[in-house]
Write a structure and sequence with these properties.
- The protein has a domain of 150 residues: Rossmann fold.
- It has a 5-stranded parallel sheet. A 3-stranded antiparallel sheet has the order 3-4-5, with helices on one face.
- It is an alpha/beta fold.
- The protein contains 9 helices and 8 strands.
- 49% of the residues lie in helices and 16% in strands.
- The structure holds 2'-deoxycytidine-5'-monophosphate.
- 2'-deoxycytidine-5'-monophosphate binds next to helix 2, helix 4 and helix 8.
- 2'-deoxycytidine-5'-monophosphate (DC) binds next to helix 2, helix 4 and helix 8.
Length: 216
């Protein structure tokens, strides 16, 4: 039987590292949905399409193809895995992911990708919108300071720890208050605050819950 694990939470909560590791250990597929919102953001930035260009956004969505291959993400055939981590994309991804049409398209794609196979998906709305019937749901979080330190250690940004913390708080606020699919814990998701847990301990906590529930 196939099963779905929904792993939601704010940026820097360790979702992608943990999802990757769980996918390896459990032998299931992994989909990082944030990378899809980032790829769409890069597409719009490259064409100078702005938040207020609502018609252009809808027109262009039909031209966007996203594929994955061996952990890399391809935007219309081009490997954009590195570019989508830039500060410019990070700064703009919130308005792109707040757009209703963008979300409709990506949620559809996510449901299609993860059908008929066991998957772990990480994101913001997996347990609430994309797969409300997921077999296992987790909501990971950690304090903004800890999350900023983790981002800093990833060496992907030119920002200082203080600047990263500010940008994380701002993005959390925006993501939590947007009208369409805000960042929110599903009622039936397990909340794990991993401010004081390392990756291994967080994974152990998740596996212990899965073992206990054993719903599949
Ligand atoms: O996980 P991340 O930081 O790479 O995600 C980038 C942005 O995409 C983040 O600001 C919120 C948005 N996002 C979303 O709205 N829904 C998802 N399922 C995944 C990400």
């Amino acid at each position: 039987m196939t099963y779905i694990i929904a792993l939601d939470g704010p940026s820097g909560s360790g979702k992608s590292t943990i999802a990757q590791e769980l996918s390896d250990r459990l032998g299931i597929e992994y989909l990082n949905t944030g990378s899809m919102y980032r790829a769409v953001t890069k597409y719009f930035l490259d064409r100078n399409i702005k938040e207020s260009d609502l018609d252009k956004i809808v027109e262009n969505l039909g031209n966007i193809q996203i594929n994955f291959n061996e952990g890399a993400i391809f935007l219309n055939g081009e490997d954009v895995s590195k570019e989508i981590r830039s500060d410019l994309v990070t700064k703009n991804v919130s308005w792109v992911s707040a757009n209703k049409n963008v979300r409709e398209k990506l949620v559809d794609m996510q449901r299609q990708i993860a059908q008929n196979t066991s998957f772990i998906l990480d994101g913001r709305d997996i347990g609430t919108v994309v797969f409300p019937n997921a077999n296992y749901k987790f909501f990971l979080t950690a304090s903004p300071r800890i999350r900023a330190l983790r981002r800093f250690d990833q060496n992907e940004s030119d920002l200082s720890i203080d600047e990263l913390e500010k940008s994380i708080i701002k993005r959390d606020e925006y993501d939590s208050n947007r009208e369409t699919s805000p960042l929110k814990k599903a009622e039936d998701a397990h909340l794990i605050d991993n401010s004081d847990l390392n990756i291994e301990e967080t994974i152990d906590a998740i596996l212990a819950i899965m073992d206990r529930e054993d719903v599949i």
